[in-house]
Amino acid sequence: MDTLLRRQGAIQKTLARRYLDGGHLVLYDITSVYFEGEHKGSELVGFGYNRDGKKGREQIVVGLICNAQGCPVGVEVYAGNTKDETTVIDKVHEIKASYGIEKIIFVGDRGMITRSTIEALKDEEDLQTIGALTHGEMRTLLKEKVITLDLFDERSIHEVTDPAEPTRRYWLCRNPQTAQRESATRQRLLDLTATALAEIAAYKRATTVEKLGARVGKALAKYKMGKFIQWSIDADKEKATSREHRLIWSIDANKVAQEKRFDGCYIVTSDVDKDQINTMEVVHAYKSLTFVERAFRNLETVQLEIRPVYHKNDDRIRGHVFLCMLAYYLQWHMEQRLAPLFTQDGKGQERRWTFRGVIDCLAQITRNKVTVNGAEFYQNSTPTPEQEEILSLLQVTM
Predict the structure, then answer these.
(1) Pick from 103, 137, 253, 315: CA 20 to 30 A from residue 230's CA?
(2) CATH superfamily of 2-175+265-337
(3) Are 231 and 91 contacting, i.e. CB atoms less than 8 angstroms apart?
(4) For 240-250, what is each residue's pLDDT tens digit?
(5) Strand, coil or helix: 377
(6) Shortest CA distance to 276 belongs to which of 129, 95, 101?
């Protein structure tokens, strides 16, 4: 592993030349990997925003670079408290300088390619970005009347240019499935919040305003629905020494309705020239980030299980993450070659093949040591028809 880590730079340069040459569309995203136990003296392991929802666990931040088709070409490990946009600037400089790629279209998720990031990269030559706006940035455009909610359409994509920044273009999109999911999630959290507040309001024992307010604050923080709740504490003003207080609360239906209009809405933004890439290509490039998300799912839970990490030394942690990336690189290429097998497979419960199923099928092939009259030799088991088909697609001979 130590030798592999020393070769990481050279290996990633080779992968970049092979898979980023020509297209220059670079997909980038980050995730967090949590740790068990203590890691004293580590410059990487620390507390930060945990994307796994594992509170109280130290972590590292992992940044992954893929080409437009989702093939991984590079990985980097950052300290656990690293912010999303901080890694972008470093990674852009690394790609251009270390990999020798001159023109780049850098694709990142919302909150990653922020205005501050764009400002920091504005002097970079031959660099353009594709990202998405946060809800706060969307509301700013709405307030400045650059966009209107009527432009968000499920059937078509509207392009808008900000007069104050004519080089930056916006594409307004709406996903109906996402809208339903966001609406259902918000209603579920509102119901949980209402239940918690009702229990607090029904509390009969004497208490202080501070303790009652703390309980309300804890409930609102847990479900993150505070912006939709109006509340106050009614104190008994007639008795100066009274400790009997009552919580009064309600859900602001107008704010809920306004938020619901944003459900499923998102804005893709870019400074790519119109003659270089059209509307559908820009939106498709942003949606291609799902390839990186899929890579993270495979690295974290589905196939490779990058966690838990048992290494205590920072270089070993870096080597472990790089080794997992190379493993996914092999898996990605296997899946490309196995595409005909998966395409002709059934759907749902009728589905026969998964990547895990392929591995299990190939694992039944054995190599046996045979001894005859004192002579020893090795003999492979005869592949079944299914194994032969898989080996043929993988272009592997026994």
Answers:
(1) 137
(2) Transposase Inhibitor Protein From Tn5; Chain A, domain 1 (3.90.350.10)
(3) no
(4) 444 567 888 99
(5) strand
(6) 129
